[in-house]
Specification:
The chain is α/β, with parallel strands linked by helices. Helix 21 crosses helix 22.
């Protein structure tokens, strides 16, 4: 055994070139050490100047022993320092812990406080009724002249309680009283308490599950219900909420046909929708070696654009998680999800989540209620619109419309990847030029969106008039970026030329102090193609209905409040999704009342709770209207402009040593290491480009745009 320990010690010393002294070897017996195991004397580095003598330490308890001793990968127990060298202590086997831990000490009752000092959730009316009935019953029995009651027995029923009283001056004790209201089910057996059921209506709209809720109650000095009881009630409430929400969505689809009739249209006239899918993962690419998608749940929503009230009329949840199936397989049973009874999964674990199939399920739901779809707005990432088209009966055509927000983001990415020369954007180094290029891309994206919105307002969304005017708008925009604002007042729409031109009013250009872009004819042609991605004939045709997936993105953020991406609700995911959909369609207050009535747990009318629910509903409606006010939007724009200006002013004086950069401290492989000669060659080319003469100014386009009068700008002296 001594040779084995020394061999392992020698292997460790090859890595650190130092000797490590083991204290002992762990044994599989309950005592932790093998009887008769020889002790290895501490060793020291021969190169060190100071010699340390071994010292026997008193026996430590298990808590201190775990902090002093570390176990190596080979099973040796050592007492190392930061370099892995063992100290001079000789450690004996640990002794049992003496005394009580903090949690164990709280199991002992306090002399000054009894068990009745804990918090209880009681119905005020039923509690008063219990005391009054006990007082009358005690007086009728003539037990004693001066009764003094206290709690005799109590039984917990979830969050609620059954209690009985006794008199300390006589032998009187009352029967058990239910201090809670019950749900009338009409069946035999114990009826559920309304508080236990209503609890899960509130939890469905939060990130809190049964486990964390028990932690909250414990912190409030309230006895928590059992985890099993909470989970069973949550499953029942989730199924009731899901069924009620599906019925409501079916009613909304029927109401869309009534709206067509009131507008003088055929009942089966098509409507427009927007569809988007939300995954329970921030990154769909799986980083594990097994591959596949890094998501187990996906929910797709369809918003109706028939009216100004953006409402969800259909949804589909694809779920790969099944708690029951996983438990059965761990016990050795051969079950396959989603084929067994009680399975919560509807997609096999090996099958990828498909937006095409989600769109097809949504299309089938709409087709069952005879709701026709004309235009579907989606992003450019998946085929949800094609799935809706395939679910429609033959002869009905559904056309896809591009989401304007995602299309603008695509335009921004293409500008960043475009083959513009390095010296097109000013800056004293490559990092500054790259940043100016990013701000220029943001500016082009913002300007194209402003032109798109303004031209639709000017021509009342007339596609023919917009297509006829847009070529002149694109040319005026190119001339403006080239330095000439002669045609801006007539054609540019968002730039009026003169002193208040686009370069002085732009949010991004003004904040960073960008005053010129050195474009050639080739650069102008490239920029024109990038602008036509948003304002060209094809782009205008694909966005002519001005549909966006912004309502869907808002719903995705709401789903994160009930279904966080780092928490897997395998059994109640459908109920939580339906709860969020109902809240988005009705508002927080009204939705809560509807869901409570659905499970037969209404709140008390005329009380403080009713006033609080009304306030919740008013706050939601106010926030929705407040965010759309023009003054609020202008204030957000001014705030953003000031923050950008402050950022660029502070960046001038900030050190670049603390910049976050991927793998900046990891070693670079030898094949990717840049030699000194290559680095010198690159620096020489960059220096020549930097000192090259500017393009001539007597060509068709002026490349030096204009000079800013605000010379005190932090970038003015460097551009």
């Amino acid at each position: 055994m001594t040779e084995t320990a020394n061999n392992e010690n020698n292997e460790t010393s090859k890595l650190s070139n130092r000797k490590t002294s083991p204290v002992g070897r762990m044994c599989k017996s309950s005592r932790g050490f093998q009887q008769g195991h020889p002790y290895f004397e501490s060793t020291h580095d021969e190169t060190t100047e100071t010699q340390h003598s071994s010292v026997w330490m008193p026996r430590l308890d298990r808590e201190h022993f775990s902090r002093v001793v570390q176990e190596t990968s080979g099973g040796l127990l050592t007492v190392p320092d930061a370099d892995g060298i063992s100290g001079s202590s000789k450690i004996l086997r640990p002794r049992p812990n003496r005394g009580l831990t903090l949690t164990e000490s709280y199991l002992q009752p306090d002399e000054n406080r009894g068990l009745s000092s804990e918090m209880r959730l009681l119905n005020v009316e039923k509690n008063a009724q219990m005391w009054n009935e006990c007082y009358v019953e005690h007086a009728e029995q003539n037990m004693c002249p001066s009764p003094q009651f206290q709690i005799y027995q109590e039984q917990q029923v979830g969050l609620c309680w059954k209690e009985s009283l006794k008199c300390v001056n006589c032998d009187y004790h009352s029967p058990m009283y239910k201090l809670y209201s019950e749900i009338e089910t009409g069946r035999c057996g114990q009826r559920a308490a309304t508080t236990n059921v209503a609890l899960h209506i509130g939890l469905q709209d939060t990130t809190t599950g049964t486990t964390k809720f028990r932690h909250i109650l414990t912190a409030m000095d309230t006895p928590p219900p059992s985890h099993t009881g909470l989970q069973r009630t949550a499953n029942k409430v989730a199924s009731l909420t899901a069924q009620a929400t599906m019925d409501d969505l079916r009613m909304r689809r029927q109401r869309s046909k009534e709206t067509n009739t009131l507008r003088g249209l055929p009942e089966d006239a098509p409507i427009n929708i927007s569809v988007d899918v939300r995954y329970n993962s921030t990154n769909l690419k799986n980083t594990y070696s097994c591959g596949g998608q890094n998501a187990s749940q996906a929910v797709g929503t369809a918003f109706s654009w028939q009216t100004d009230q953006r409402e969800i009329i259909a949804f589909q949840l694809d779920n790969k998680l099944c708690k029951l199936g996983s438990s059965l397989r761990s016990k050795g049973l051969n079950v396959t999800c989603p084929a067994h009874i009680g399975c919560t999964a509807n997609v096999p674990a090996t099958e990828p989540l498909s937006e095409y199939k989600i769109g097809k399920h949504i299309g089938e739901s709409l087709a069952r209620d005879d709701v026709a779809i004309k235009y579907v707005a989606t992003d450019g990432d998946a085929l949800a619109s094609r799935g809706i088209q395939d679910a429609k009966p033959a002869g009905m055509q559904t056309q896809r419309q591009s989401d304007t927000t995602h299309l603008s983001q695509t335009q921004f990415r293409h500008i960043m990847k475009a083959s513009f020369p390095a010296m097109m954007f000013p800056g004293e180094n490559a990092a500054r030029r790259t940043e100016n290029r990013r701000l220029f891309a943001e500016d082009v994206k913002t300007r194209c969106q402003m032109v798109y919105t303004s031209v639709h307002m000017l021509h009342n969304s007339d596609e023919t008039a917009i297509a006829r005017r847009m070529p002149d708008v694109i040319q005026a925009t190119l001339n403006c970026y080239s330095g000439s604002c002669a045609s801006c007042r007539r054609h540019a729409i968002v730039c009026r030329g003169g002193r208040r031109n686009w370069w002085h009013t732009s949010l991004h250009l003004k904040a960073c102090g960008l005053t010129r872009v050195n474009m050639t004819d080739s650069d102008r042609s490239t920029l024109q193609g990038l602008i036509e991605m948003r304002l060209g004939h094809v782009a205008l045709h694909m966005t002519r209905r001005r549909l966006t997936t912004n309502p869907n993105e808002s719903a995705n953020r709401a789903f994160s409040a009930s279904l966080p991406k780092n928490v897997k609700f395998s059994r109640n995911a459908l109920g939580r999704v339906c709860s969020v959909i109902d809240r988005l369609n009705y508002g927080a207050g009204e939705s809560m009342l509807r869901k409570l009535e659905n499970v037969q747990c209404p709140i008390t009318k005329g009380g403080k709770v009713a006033r609080a629910v009304k306030r919740m509903q008013q706050d939601v409606m106010y926030q929705r209207s407040y965010a759309r006010q023009p003054a609020v939007r202008q204030h957000r724009r001014a705030t953003k402009s000031q923050r950008m200006k402050d950022y660029f002013e502070a960046k001038q004086h900030r050190s670049t040593l603390d910049v976050y950069r991927k793998r900046q401290l990891d070693r670079t492989p030898a094949s990717q290491t840049v030699t000194a000669a290559t680095a010198t060659s690159v620096r020489t080319v960059r220096r020549r480009r930097r000192h090259a003469p500017p393009p001539p100014n007597d060509t068709e386009h002026s490349y030096s745009l204009r000079s800013r009068k605000s010379a005190d700008h932090p970038y003015a002296s460097k551009l």
